[in-house]
Amino acid sequence: MPKTPADAVNHLVLAAARVPGETALYDVHVVDGVVSRVAPAGMPGLPGSQVVNVDGRCVIPGLWDEHVHMTQWALAANRLDLSGAASARAAADVVRSALSGPGSAVEGGNGLTVVGVGFRDAVWADVPSLELLDGATRGLPTALLSHDLHCVWLNSAAASRYGVPVDSSGLLREEPAFELTRELGKLPDAVVDAWVREAAQAAAARGIVGIVDFEMTWNRDVWLRRVAGGFDSFRVDAGVYPQDLARAIAEGLRTGQELDGRAGLLRVGPLKILIDGSLNTRTAFCVDPYPHGGRGLLTVSEAELLDWLVRARECGFVPAVHAIGDGANEVALNAFAAAGIAGRIEHAQFVRGQDFARFGELGLTASVQPAHALDDRDAAESNWAGRTERAFPLRSLLAAGATLALGSDAPVSPLEPWTAMSAATTRARQDGREPWHPEQALTRQEAMVASTRGRGRIRVGDPADLVVLDGDPLAVADAVFAAMPVAATLVAGRFTFRGGV
Questions:
Q1: Are strands 344-347 and 319-323 parallel, antiparallel or unpaired?
Q2: Hey, CA dihedral for 63, 67, 73, 76, is it positive or negative?
Q3: Cβ contacts of residue 135 below 8 Å, gap of 6+?
Q4: How many Å apart are CA 107 and CA 192, to the nearest integer?
Q5: What pLDDT score was predicted for residue 143?
Q6: What pLDDT, on the 0 to 100 scale, is given for residue 101?
Q7: Around Cβ 47, how many Cβ atoms within 10 Å?
Q8: Which residues lie below 8 Å from residue 97, measured CB to CB, with a gap of 6+?
Q9: How far, in Å, CA of 494 to CA of 501, rounded?
Q10: Which of 50, 57, 58 lies closest to 12 in space, CA to CA?
Q11: Which of 16, 170, 171, 188 is the most buried (most CB within 10 A)?
Q12: Considering only CA atoms, which of 368, 391, 371 is closest in space to residue 381?
């Protein structure tokens, strides 16, 4: 029986609810945080039940974001936004303008370091340089994080402050970038936790009942602190990285283990293993070379990955392997086959046709981020020219038998499940641009199944993690679906957001 938060309503009835695509009205009965009955409307509930009339609104299982960097997402909202910069020079101009304005863009908790986020240099005609950023920053230490978190652009003052060597580009990539990103995130706990609560409340208002948090830190203690401090917006599966696996094993942790007792909000997540880079940084490991040369970076060899997967199997961890390029996906599939363990491949952005079937044969979950297909379509066309029919291949993966799990990779894309589902189902934004490879689109029902941990619709015996919608997700127009109005969200029968009901 699933655990329930201690303050959940014992007996609750969501009266006069609808199932998407149907007109009949139902009452959803919740007892001790679990769906106990879905019955025709008007049937009596338990004495003393709290009855909430949802007035014909659709009720669906709660939504999960299967790939989030929660602290980075919260920090991003409080940093300088570079997402609109169309060139390196434009990004430097954004920094220059921010520094000349009132209060500037200085992140006060981080001393005098200016921190920006969200640049996409893969589609810039010019390139970042140390000289360019130095000229815009008046000697203030400045660190700009790419949208995919795999690259940091520094000025000379920041390189000196943090003791990191940079060349004339001013760029750090992959592990050196990750290390500096972690350092930049070392703000007071009270500050970061307040930002996380704010971001989580916004996510709950969009129907999120749970996330898999892949923040690159020893995440268990961070989340135990937050839950003890009153965090209750959604459930969290807190991932573990290889550098912390020995500690996790020594402390008896395993994937799925509950960590917070009766609160039921926090569990151990998967073991996250990064084996290549990213498309924007041109470090995703590919079979064929990039136009500028090189095939990207394979940061963990196939033999090393196999060792990690065997260790994960032996100690009860579900492995989640970051693989973006087609070469990295081939390596990951080979290692999963040799290890004899199921698990997840995070991203699976570029996969050769002969490898699709292996996802299904090996029982793997493809943890994918549909909004990336639209964010990165130009970068993909530039770097994977002539092969993008198998980029972000949602339909092909599903048809091959993979289990799909949708997410955002926030802050790479917003922690907004309807944006992800809209991207998956339309392969287009609401901006008039033509859909990109619409043959890879999912149906809305498939997208909802992939966003609700395979549920798709409410089932008796499931945790009462529910979302009440102001529209029928199977019937509304695409623009409405992309910004679906949420009337309420519940975790274990407790309202985490209550708007229109």
A1: parallel
A2: negative
A3: 92
A4: 12
A5: 97
A6: 67
A7: 6
A8: none
A9: 13
A10: 50
A11: 170
A12: 391
Nearest to 500 by CA among 468, 473, 465: 468
Round to whole Å and give the CA distance between 5 and 488.
18
Count of beta carbons in the 10 Å neighbourhood of residue 54: 24
On whether the CB atoms of residues 414 and 65 are closer than 8 A, the answer is no
pLDDT at 102: 55
Q: Please tell me the distance from the alpha carbon of residue 375 to that of residue 123, in angstroms, as a whole number.
A: 11
User: Which amino acid makes up residue 383?
Assistant: N
| Coil, strand or helix at 328 | helix
Q: Is 82 helix (H, G, I), strand (E, B) or coil?
A: coil
Q: Are the beta carbons of 397 and 404 closer than 8 angstroms? A: yes
Token pair listed for 345: 């491949």
Q: How many CA atoms lie within 13 A of 399 on its CB side?
A: 12
- Point out the residues of the chain with pLDDT beneath 70: 1-9, 101-111
Residues in the chain: 501
Residue 434 DSSP label: P
- Backbone angle region of 445, left / alpha / beta, with phi > 0 → left and psi within -120 to 50 → alpha: alpha
User: CA-CA distance, 317 to 267, in Å (whole number)?
Assistant: 12
Q: Which amino acid is residue 165, in one-letter code? A: P
Residue 445 in tokens: 């029902």
Q: Which two tokens stand for residue 88?
A: 């390196």
pTM surpassing 0.85? Answer: yes
User: What integer pLDDT is reported at residue 2 of this predicted model?
Assistant: 45
What gap in Å lies between CA 139 and CA 233, rounded to an integer? 41
103 contact partners, CB below 8 Å, separation of at least 6: none
Q: Which residues contact 221 (CB under 8 A, 6 or more apart)?
A: none
- Per DSSP, 87 falls in state S
d(CA 230, CA 396): 42
321 contacts: CB under 8 Å, gap ≥ 6: 273, 275, 305, 309, 332, 335, 336, 343, 344, 345, 346
Cβ neighbour number for residue 378 with a 10 Å cutoff: 13
